[in-house]
C-alpha cells in the first residue's frame, strides 16, 4: 500500500513575508522566507501567489531561512517575479517525501530548474560525509543554476544543450558516461521528464538505485483531489521522490501527464 | 458479524460505504484502488460533455478536519473519461457515474455515455452554478430538479440519483421534486456554501472566493436534511456530509439513509477509512444486537 493508506498530515496555511530575493539567472529568482516548520531536502511547499495562483515549489533551501526557486514561464510565475522583499505570500507545507541517502557515493543529475529540487539534497549528502558528484545541465550557459553550491559539496560536471559550457549535449548523456566510468551507490535526478527517464533507465541497467523527483499538475496537495496521479500513486503525498523501480513499471512516467482538466497530454 | 450488504434503489452493494464524488476519482486506477480498500461503490468525479479546466488555485482550504473547496468542476469530458471508468470496472469496482452539464440535453447525453460504459447508476450533480438561464443552481429550483431528473430517467435504464444541495430553505420540497421526476434515490447533501479569508492578506483564500464546506462540521446539517427527506419521500436516501466514523454512519442510517458516502474523511483517516468505518458499523450493530442495516434505517423516526 502507498503512503496514502495512512492519514495525511494536517497542513496549515502560513502567510509569510518574502525576506530576500536573489536573481539566479535571467528569468529565475530565489525567494527566501521564514516559516514555523522544519523541512527536509526533497520536500516541497504550495506557494499561494495572492490574486494569481497557488503552485507547488521545491524547497531549494531548508533550515531557518527557507527558499524556493522559480523560473518565470507562465502567468503564476511571471506574477511572482514581480513580488518584492516584504510582500506577503501564502505557504502550505512542507509536503511530500524527501531524499533518503544510503551508501557512500551519490550522483545527482539535474536538468534546468530541476536543480532547485536537488540542491538542498546535494548539500545534505555532503554534510553527511557522502562523496557527491553532480551533473548539472541546462539549455545554455546562462541557465545553469546553483553550480557554486554544488561545487562546495563535491565534484561538478556541467553540460549545455548548445555547448556554450562544459559537455555539449543533455545532462542525461553526460550522466550515462559518468555512470560508466565511476561507481555510485545511489543516483538522484530532477529535470525534464524525458531526461529523467533516460537517466532512470541507464541507472537501472547498471543496477544502481535511482530516485527521481517528479512534477505533475497539482491542486489540493494533500492527497485527495487526484489531480497529480502518477500511475497508482499521487505525487503530492507518495512523492515527489519516486524509486526508479516504481517509475520503470509505471505507464505514465516518461509518456504522459494530465492537464488541469485531467486529460492526458503526451510528452515529446 | 452483522450483514452489511445493502440494496439501494435496486443497487446491490457489498457494504453501505460509498466514495463521494470529487475525491480520488480522476483516474480509473484511483477508483479501483478506493474500491479495493473497502468501499461498497465509488462515485466518479462530476463529468460533462467537453473538457473543463476548473478554477485556478487555491482551490482548497484546509480547516482542521474540515475543508472548503472550489475546484470548479474540472474534468476531461465524458469521451476522454470513459477509458478511466472502464478501467475501474475491469478491475472489479462498482462505479456510479456523476453527471453535470448546462442543460437537460447535456445531462442526458453524459448519462447515456456513462450507462453504456457499464456504471451501476448515475448520480446527478445538480449544484453546478452554470446551468443555462436559471440564475441559480439547478438544485435550488423544484421545477429544474424535477425536469432534469425526468429527462435523464427517460434516457437511461440504470438507477438515477439526484444529489441535493443543503443550500435551500426546504430540502424536502426539492426531494419531492426529484421523486416526481422519477428519481430512484436521492443523495443528500452536497457541500455547504462557505468562505475562508486570510486576515494577513485581507482577501478570500479561494480563487473563486466561495467554496463548499465539507467534513465533520457538515454532519449535523446533513443529518437534518436526511431526516427531513426520509419523512417526506418514498424513495431511498443516501446520506453524505461529514461521515468519518462508523458512529457517524449509524447516525445517518438512523436518520433514514440506506447508505452513506464518504469523502473528506479520507484526508484525516486515509484510504483505510472505508475499511475502518465498515468495522465500526459492524461493532456497533453487534453490540446493540442488530444483524442487518435495514433494521436501523430510519429508526430515529419511530
Average pLDDT level of chain B: 95
| Main sheet makeup of chain A | 7 strands, antiparallel
Overall pLDDT of chain A:
94
* Assembly state of the chains shown: heterodimer
Individual helix count of chain B? 9
Report the order of strands and helices of chain A.
EEEEEEHEEHEHEEHEHEEEHEHEE
User: Roughly what fraction of the amino acids of chain A lie in strands?
Assistant: 25-35%
Major sheet size, sense and barrel closure of chain B? 8 strands, parallel, barrel
Radius of gyration of chain A in whole Å, from Cα?
17 Å
Structural class by helix and strand composition of chain A: alpha/beta
Give the helix/strand class of chain B.
alpha/beta
Number of helices of chain A: 7
Strand content of chain B: 15-25%
Ends of chain B: how far apart? 25 Å
Query: What is the approximate shape of chain B?
Result: globular
Number of strands of chain B: 16
Q: Tell me the helix content of chain A.
A: 10-25%
Order of strands in the sheet with the most strands of chain A? 1-7-4-5-6-3-2
Biggest interface: chains and residue counts?
A: A-B, 41 and 46 residues
End-to-end span of chain A in angstroms? 31 Å
Structure write-up:
- The complex is a heterodimer of chains A (268) and B (302).
- Helix content of chain A is 23%, strand content 34%.
- Chain A is of the alpha/beta class and 268 residues long.
- In chain A, strand 9 (131-138), helix 3 (147-153) and strand 10 form a beta-alpha-beta unit.
- Chain B is 34% helix and 22% strand.
- Chain B is globular, with a radius of gyration of 18 Å.
- Chain A binds chain B through residues 1, 4-8, 10-13, 15, 46, 48, 50-55, 88, 90, 92, 219-227, 229, 231-232, 258-264, and chain B through 22-27, 29-30, 33, 37, 45, 51-54, 56-62, 64, 69, 71, 74-77, 80-81, 198, 200-201, 203, 205, 207, 263-264, 266-272.
